[in-house]
Specification:
Blueprint (H helix, E strand, L loop, with lengths): L11 E2 L7 H15 L5 H14 L3 E3 L2 E2 L2 E3 L7 E11 L9 E9 L4 H15 L2 H9 L2 H10 L2
Helix pairs in contact: 1-2
């Protein structure tokens, strides 16, 4: 499995402008909506916020992986964002999140959805990868880094 199969350069945000969890989710969903117009942004944001209510997707080490299932997508969508300042995602370790991977999946694709989440989680456990992610130059640098994953 390679993340590059589920990611487009337009869905990489090299520096988030938003400062809160809700604003970040909106900013990422808006970027996805620009690339996938059939995506209903209000539904996507609500699905992500509903998932956050179940428990934070901030998993620690400056990482958040917001995710959910959505009827208006017909394939798995991965978007990636970075925040130099960090965003309070109510993470398990209470640290601000600087690396955010968002995953939206169709309702009927549970197995693949879970494999992608596990793949992202394993990838982000590598401190060298996290460092390289934070140091990558802009969208192109992040794209190059993520192509090999």
């Amino acid at each position: 499995m390679r993340l590059g199969e589920y990611l487009d350069t337009e869905m990489i945000i090299p520096e988030l402008a938003s400062a809160t969890k809700a604003e970040v989710l909106r900013e990422i969903v808006d970027a996805v909506h620009q690339h996938i117009p059939e995506l209903d942004p209000q539904d996507a944001i609500q699905v992500l916020l509903d998932r956050e209510e179940l428990g934070s997707t901030g998993i620690g080490d400056g990482i958040a992986i917001p995710h959910g299932k959505l009827e208006s997508v017909d394939h798995i969508v991965v978007a990636v964002a970075r925040s130099s300042a960090g965003v309070d995602f109510d993470a398990l370790d209470h640290a601000p999140c600087k690396i955010i991977f968002m995953v939206l999946a169709p309702e009927q694709v549970a197995g693949l959805h879970l494999r992608i989440l596990a793949h992202i989680s394993r990838l982000l456990k590598d401190s060298e990868f996290r460092r390289n992610f934070m140091e990558a130059e802009g969208r192109d640098g992040l794209w190059q880094l993520l192509q090999g994953t």
